[in-house]
Design goal:
The protein is of the alpha/beta class and 390 residues long. α2 packs parallel to α7, α3 runs parallel beside α4 and α5 packs across α6. The radius of gyration is 23 Å and the shape is elongated. The longest helix is centred in the last third of the chain and has 21 residues. The strands form two sheets. Strands 2-3-1-4-8-7-5-6 form an eight-stranded mixed β-sheet. 32% of the residues lie in helices and 24% in strands. α8 links the parallel β10 and β11. Bound molecules: S-adenosylmethionine. The site of S-adenosylmethionine has 20 residues, from α6.
Length: 390
């Protein structure tokens, strides 16, 4: 089977974690971008990547690189690809795009040209035109076109991989699963001692930590991926990959995962999400103020994602909360490594602890930091944190 370049997209800030994941799965890292990492593999490899990657959004399998100056040239080049080998004539195709070409004022025009080229080609070869539209639940093609250079990909994920299928109950400001997985990976928790997640909200960080420690494949719950709508998809191999992942996954944990929130509805939602994810029995949930979260002896990590609000009234209240977070970490979490994820550096200063590391992330377009604190005896003066090593 032919190997092809594969581009794996992810949120900004996440490529260092995605690279680690790829290396652990024995895939080469061939390029690194602001919000993507390049590797290579067969179409079947793309199935495995979709099942196993925790920090990826989309696995894009390259079909054709091209050079086109304008939309007519684009149409001709895309229509020359043998789409009838990939997309069923009675199927449905969605074209997504990332376009920066001087001849195109509206990216939607390039997307439309690309879609026309695909369906016209299939009609010519198979006598029938597949349906098309914005639904990413079936065959998805991605067009990348910057200046003269472009690439046409099969999007083997379809819906982004952050949609694992366990978060049924939406709450305010939930963290995306891919970001929560990167945060949990950044803590380097080894499954011993405790993983404590006060202010757990819908439980995403605790659930991702449980799945990582169990080595449970993040894609195991999903029943639909883009690759399933590509002609010749090897269903037997997909079943084999899933079976293999199930067998490799551990059933129990050595350490403890504790997740609490002051809002009973949030804890109820977190519990239900954990049940759907199959990890409810591994997480000890509780309703309490973060400062009353049980902190067992033996050390581990404490991870908090407080709100970082925007309105003035909110900020004043949050200043007090961040100050209390600092007190909690200093007084109750000695011997642990503390982490605070926030999008507001001013509020972070109220913690009054010196961060040892600062991991840059983006959450809904806002630049955020995951700050790491060594929680020794006593307090320390605030100093500028070092950036995270690549
Ligand atoms: C930004 S949300 C956390 C989102 C979470 N990471 C997720 O993925 O859903 C902040 C959470 O802090 C909780 N919270 C606010 N004040 C609290 C307090 N004093 N003690 C405990 N939890 C608190 C809120 O109920 C909310 O669920």
């Amino acid at each position: 089977m032919r190997k092809s370049p594969i581009l794996i997209t992810c949120p900004k800030g996440i490529p260092p974690f995605l690279k680690q994941e790829l290396t652990a799965l024995n895939f080469p890292v061939l390029s690194e971008h602001v919000a993507a990492v390049g590797t290579e593999g067969t179409f079947d490899d793309a199935l495995r990547l979709n099942l196993r990657l925790r920090t990826a959004h989309r696995v894009l399998f390259e079909l054709q690189e091209f050079s086109a100056k304008n939309a007519d040239e684009l149409y001709g080049l895309v229509a020359a690809i043998n789409w009838e080998a990939y997309i069923p004539e009675d199927g449905y195709v969605c074209v997504t795009s990332s376009v920066e070409n001087p001849s195109i004022r509206d990216a939607r025009f390039a997307t439309l040209k690309c879609k026309d080229a695909i369906v016209d080609r299939i009609k010519e070869k198979q006598g029938r035109r597949p349906d098309s539209g914005p639904d990413r639940g079936r065959s998805v093609v991605h067009l990348y076109w910057k200046d003269d250079r472009g690439v046409v990909y099969l999007d083997t994920s379809g819906e982004p991989l952050s949609r694992r299928g366990y978060r049924k109950i939406p709450l305010e400001a939930p963290m995306q699963e891919t970001l929560a997985a990167a945060v949990a990976l950044a803590t380097r928790w080894d499954g011993r001692g405790a993983f404590i997640n006060p202010m757990c909200g819908s439980g995403t960080i605790a659930i991702e930590a449980a799945m990582i420690t169990l080595d449970r494949a993040p894609g195991i719950l999903r029943t639909n991926f883009g690759f399933m709508h590509v002609k010749g998809f090897n269903e037997a191999l997909w079943r084999e990959f899933r079976e293999e992942a199930r067998k490799e996954s551990r059933k129990s944990l050595e350490g403890r995962i504790i997740a609490t929130d002051i809002d009973p509805e949030a804890v109820e939602a977190a519990r239900k999400n954990a049940t759907t994810a199959g990890v409810e029995h591994l997480i000890e949930f509780g309703v309490c103020d973060f400062s009353d979260t049980p902190v067992p002896d033996g050390g581990g990590v404490v991870v908090m994602n407080p709100a970082y609000g925007e309105r003035m009234g909110e900020i004043a209240k949050l200043e007090e909360t961040y100050k209390r977070i600092g007190d909690f970490l200093k007084q109750k979490c000695k011997g642990y490594t503390g982490y605070v994820f926030t999008g507001n550096p001013g509020l972070a200063k109220k913690i009054s602890l010196k961060p040892k590391l600062s991991f840059p992330f983006f959450n809904s377009g806002i630049e955020c930091r995951l700050l790491e604190y060594d929680l020794y005896e006593g307090t320390r003066k605030i100093k500028k944190p070092k950036s995270q090593p690549a």
